[in-house]
Amino acid sequence: MRKTETKISQLGEFGLIDLIKKRVFSKDKRIIVNIGDDAAVIRTSSERFLIFTTDTLVERIHFDLNYFTPEEIGWKAMVANLSDIAAMGGLPKYAIVTVGLPKSIHVDDVFSIYKGASRIAKKYNCKIIGGDTTLAPKDLFISIALLGEVEKKFLVTRSGAKKGDLICVTGKLGEAQAGLEYLKKYGRQKLPLVRKHLQPQPLIKEARILVKNLKVNSMIDISDGLSSELFHLTEESRLGAVLYEQNIPISPKCLKVATLLNKTPLAWALSSGEEYELLFTVDRKDQGKIKKIKSKKNISVIGEMMAKREGVKLIQKSGKVKDLKKIGFMHF
Predict the structure, then answer these.
(1) Contacts of 6 (CB under 8 A, 6+ apart)
(2) Predicted pLDDT at 270
């Protein structure tokens, strides 16, 4: 491979992924989904597919030991992977857990990390079956690889959105980022606001309800932020989109703390990463079905998919139309 002087900070996280995709892309008749989605998908039979995903959490990048317990670190690392499986419409099955440990860490803390990962995995019938341990020179890290399964008829990817699809999201947004900023400023306190950041929940059951009852054309989990994830859907589906500010569901807990932290709730809703809510698009003909599910599950219709030439827009409450920017968590 020809050496380049380009630094990853110049490419950005997604620029680097695109470059890897071009240079490392593998072709195989059994590969259904390759680099560029929440997970890879491999054909194992005519009607069932294998889902393969991985996520890594690094100290001082994804968590801070000043307000994260070891158990919460393990929990959150597992949730990041479980949520990827949910975004593909599947069910988690088996996980392997790798930890990088500094020499100073206590054995009890190591077991607490595994306890957290095991607790949330068990809740969704996922079994930890192996992994690795290695020395970390300074900062703790945990990396999990997870296998799941999905029926062919329920598989959903980022690239299947259609022009005219309704853009929907589960839950209320902004809480994870608001909780993080509160923790950074005031430290750990027993507040419901910080729970979503410390112990998020994967929406496995909710995703299965969606794919079984609606014509879900595309889906992604909100791990980096609503606007960032919407751009992934539009780019992979080669479409544009419009969001309606008045329809974006902002957590009431964010509204309460926004003044205290001098922040804008809408900005949190658009940029809050690690929400692990589901952003998905649905055939407009299913609008009636959405209303029925909405009575049982918290779903909001926040926009629609447009032609690519329309770009990605936000219609503000005032009626003013503005270009939506890709904001959210990025590593580089």
Answers:
(1) none
(2) 93
Domain contains 212: yes
**Residues 129 and 222 placed together within one structural domain of the fold:** no
For residues 128 and 182, membership in a common domain is answered with no
268 with 120, same domain: the answer is no
Chain-centre distance for alpha carbon 163: 23
**Beta carbons of 88 and 102 less than 8 angstroms apart:** no
One domain, residues 139 and 165: no
In the chain the first and final C-alpha atoms are separated, in Å, by 22
Q: Which domain holds residue 99?
A: 37-154
Asked whether residue 124 falls in the same domain as residue 189, the answer is: no
What is the reported pLDDT for 172?
93
Q: What CATH number does the domain containing 58 carry? A: 3.30.1330.10
For 34, phi and psi rounded to 5 degrees?
-110, -155
- Region of 329 (left: φ > 0; alpha: ψ -120 to 50; beta: rest) is beta
SS3 174: coil
DSSP labels, 303-319? EEEE-GGG-EEEE-TTS
pLDDT digits (tens, 9 = 90+) for 198-214: 999 999 999 999 999 99
Q: Write out the DSSP string of 9-29.
A: HHH-HHHHHHHHHHHH----T
Q: Residue 180 belongs to a domain with what CATH number?
A: 3.90.650.10
What are the C-alpha distances in Å from 253 to residues 186, 268, 329? 16, 12, 21
Residue 200 near residue 272 (C-beta atoms within 8 A): no
Q: Which helix (H) or strand (E) holds 135?
A: strand 127-135
- Residue 291: inside a domain: yes
Domains: count for the chain: 2
Contact 44, 226 (CB under 8 A): no
How many other CB atoms sit within 10 Å of the CB of residue 202? 26
DSSP state of 248: S
Comparing CA positions, the residue from 181, 142, 149, 139 lying closest to residue 56 is 142
Beta bridge partners of 219: 280
User: The whole model's pTM is what?
Assistant: 0.90
